[in-house]
Specification:
By secondary structure, this protein is α+β, with helices and mostly antiparallel strands. The chain has 2 domains: 169 residues, Probable inorganic polyphosphate/atp-NAD kinase, domain 1 (Rossmann fold, 3-Layer(aba) Sandwich); 160 residues, Tumour Suppressor Smad4. The protein contains 10 helices and 15 strands. A hairpin with a 4-residue loop joins strand 5 and strand 6. The longest helix has 16 residues.
Length: 353
């Protein structure tokens, strides 16, 4: 795994100062500062990345904590301490019988939590456990796809509501170099290059500012990234192209609001595979507005295919993968859709989003 950006190398593993509403429902034996990794004893584990969105995630936490307390949710709060920590925390919790995991942070934090729903061998853990999301971070793309509220308080109410939607997950198997799971989008090519730059950027932040950073780095990369020859196989059908990007989508948005896969569904058992052929700088730049609006599929350099198993091989220099906002791995790789693999907490029908 490529090292995560500084924002993911979270602070010390200590209890957040979330105010009386938080302490009202947190189990008294759930203090992460006690040292070592202990079994989770509550039915709900909250995994929070304190460095997400430049530290603003931690500051927003009391809003969500108050809603969880009001809903009678007893939970343990754990702060992430570094790359991969969220995944291990979730695996330990599910092994101990935890029934609900809540990710608090951006798309990268959510991805680490999702990977905790599978063991090191790729086998599913905690089939009856649910996943909640209280979003904050740079991109926020998955919450747009799933209809999770942007407000921390409203997202916490979705966790409390008990409403659940079964969604698909994706698995990336890198040739001889491990695997990664995702629930939104994995892409290779220019996306991996952009994310690598964003994660190095001193301007990385959440909200509208995060979208601006993605756009800026996308423009910079468009001017410097040439096409790469690649072989793409979708359920046995082979395409060979000089590509700018190969996007394997479960959800619809990526890159801080780009509507890359407007026809994708989180629960149809299929990937939408968007293949973007190499084109000149003028054509690439002129296509950006259509990309943000989801109106790019009719452009001649764009091809859409649907399938359950996707194989991507570079015929020259490897293509970097962007997996839900983190640069992880490179081609060659095989991506497989896992229908209904995750039970996602959703807002109640009468919740205003």
């Amino acid at each position: 795994m490529v090292p995560a950006p500084p924002s993911r190398r979270a602070d010390v593993q200590q209890r957040a100062d979330a105010g009386p509403a938080d302490g009202a429902r947190r189990r008294p034996d759930a203090d992460p500062a006690a040292g070592g990794r202990r079994s989770v004893t509550a039915s709900t584990l909250v995994v929070l990345n304190p460095a997400s969105a430049g530290g603003r995630t931690l500051k927003r936490w009391p809003e969500a904590a108050a809603e969880l307390a009001a809903g009678g949710v007893e939970y343990e709060l754990r702060l992430t301490t570094g790359p991969g920590d969220a995944t291990e925390q979730v695996r330990d919790a599910l092994a101990a019988g935890c029934r609900r995991i809540v990710a608090v942070g951006g798309d990268g934090t959510l991805n680490e939590v999702v990977n905790g729903f599978f063991d090191a061998d790729g086998e599913a853990l905690g089939d009856s456990a649910t996943l909640g999301l209280i979003p904050s971070g740079t991109g926020g793309d998955f919450r747009k796809c799933a209809g999770v509220p942007a407000s921390a308080a409203a997202a916490a109410r979705a966790v409390v509501s008990g409403s659940v939607r079964r969604i698909d997950a994706g698995r990336v198997d890198y040739d001889g170099a491990g695997r990664r799971f995702f629930i939104n989008i994995a892409d290779c090519g220019i996306g991996g290059e952009v994310v690598a730059r964003v994660n190095r950027s001193t301007r990385k932040r959440g909200g509208a500012g995060g979208s601006a950073v993605f756009l800026w780095e996308s423009l910079r990369t468009l001017l410097s990234f040439g096409g790469r020859d690649a072989r793409i196989e979708v359920d046995g059908a082979v395409v060979e192209r000089t590509v700018r990007s190969v996007v394997v989508a479960n959800g619809r948005f990526f890159g801080g609001g780009m509507h890359i896969a407007p026809e994708a569904s989180l629960d149809d058992g299929l990937f939408d595979v968007v293949i973007v052929a190499a084109s000149g700088r003028v054509a690439a730049l002129s296509g950006l507005p259509a990309l943000y609006r989801g109106r790019h599929l009719s452009r001649r350099e764009v091809e859409l295919r649907k399938g359950r198993v996707v194989r991507v091989e570079s015929l020259g220099e490897p293509l970097l993968f962007d997996v839900e906002g983190e640069q992880v791995g490179q081609t060659p790789a095989t991506l497989t859709c896992l229908p209904g693999a995750i039970a996602l907490c959703m807002p109640a029908a009468d919740e205003v989003r």
